[in-house]
Amino acid sequence: MCGIAALQIRNPELRDSLGRLMYGMLCEIVDRGPDSAGLALYGSERLTPSGTATVTVLDTGLEADAFAERLARELPEGSDVVVTDYAESSLVNAKVEPAVLEAAVARVLPEGHVIGRGEHVAVLKGVGHPVELAEAYRLTSAGGVQGLSHTRMATESAVTASGAHPFTVSEDLCLVHNGSFSNHATIRRMLRREGVEFDSENDSEVAARYIAWRMSQGDDLKSALENLGEVFDGFYTLVVTTADGMAVVRDPIACKPAIIAVTDDWVAMASEYRALAELPGIEDARIFEPTPGVVYTWHVDGSVAEGATR
């Protein structure tokens, strides 16, 4: 079944409250996916300090200090590596480019599983009750520009932290999915022929890889999602976030629920209205269900583009 909750904050005065608001939204979608959960938070000075790259690694098998020390030996002097453990997720920050940090992680942990990368996003995910995971991540104390959360009820692959959402397969690009794709194996084979590598057998990862691949070919986010609608079969609600934007799309039959609320201060999306009910100013929000097959995009600067129907 799975639950999705996403929030983009436009009013700078509310950004210190991002984690607290996301926690309230997450608590209302737990029964849609109680076996695992994940978060992506953008612009948090605690999780993604300015001037650093951030990489998240699952189950390193190392103490945080030992991991940081080994990474420091692989990076230029002055990289100021910091590793913080959040349950199964280890968050690594360093003053280098994201690709440089990820390459160093691969050298230190050749079998390590990187689940997040970028300059603006921190990805944390694991197995267990979503509220307990959110508390382990200290979600309520995090500020930021936007957040994305997912509670998973596994249908297509095993209950593991690597199979939890969001999928972050390129820098600062995150995807969550409620639904199922029937032709994901065919598309996976096509992408592998294009040189795309995969970390799991999850059908949602295929969608994330496809979007990242399309964008590497020149698509913007909206176009990539419109192309996905032409290629993927199945039923889905997708939310995709970037460093400065958020997009929502449902399949043309709208098999999976989604509701959007928009104010001058924020944009929010959730699988159920109850996840939106306590947001500040909800009584004055424009509330609607996204039209099937239409890509909606919002940018942190306040611009919106509501896309073409499939």
Q: Main traits of this protein?
A:
310 residues, alpha+beta, seven-stranded antiparallel β-sheet, 7 helices, 24% helix, globular
Task: Report on the architecture of this protein.
The chain is α+β, with helices and mostly antiparallel strands. It has seven helices and 17 strands. The protein has a seven-stranded antiparallel beta sheet with strand order 7-2-8-1-14-13-15, with helices on one face. The chain has a six-stranded antiparallel beta sheet with strand order 9-10-11-12-16-17. A four-stranded antiparallel beta sheet has the order 4-5-3-6. A hairpin with a 2-residue loop joins strand 4 and strand 5. Helix 2 crosses helix 3. It is globular. The mean pLDDT is 93.
Oligomer: single chain
Number of helices: 7
Report the C-alpha radius of gyration, rounded.
18 Å
Spatial ordering of strands, largest sheet: 7-2-8-1-14-13-15
Low-confidence stretches: none
Question: Topology as H/E string?
Answer: EHEEHEEHEEHEEEHHHEEEEEEE
Give the overall silhouette. globular
Largest sheet: 7 strands, antiparallel
What distance separates the N and C termini? 24 Å
| Average pLDDT over all residues | 93
Question: How big a fraction of the residues is strand?
Answer: 25-35%
Residue share in helices? 10-25%
Task: Produce the secondary structure layout.
Blueprint (H helix, E strand, L loop, with lengths): L2 E7 L8 H10 L8 E7 L10 E6 L5 H11 L7 E5 L2 E6 L3 H11 L4 E6 L2 E7 L2 H7 L9 E7 L14 E4 L2 E9 L2 H10 L9 H14 L4 H11 L2 E8 L3 E6 L8 E4 L3 E5 L15 E3 L5 E6 L4 E6 L1
Helix pairs in contact: 2-3, 5-6, 6-7
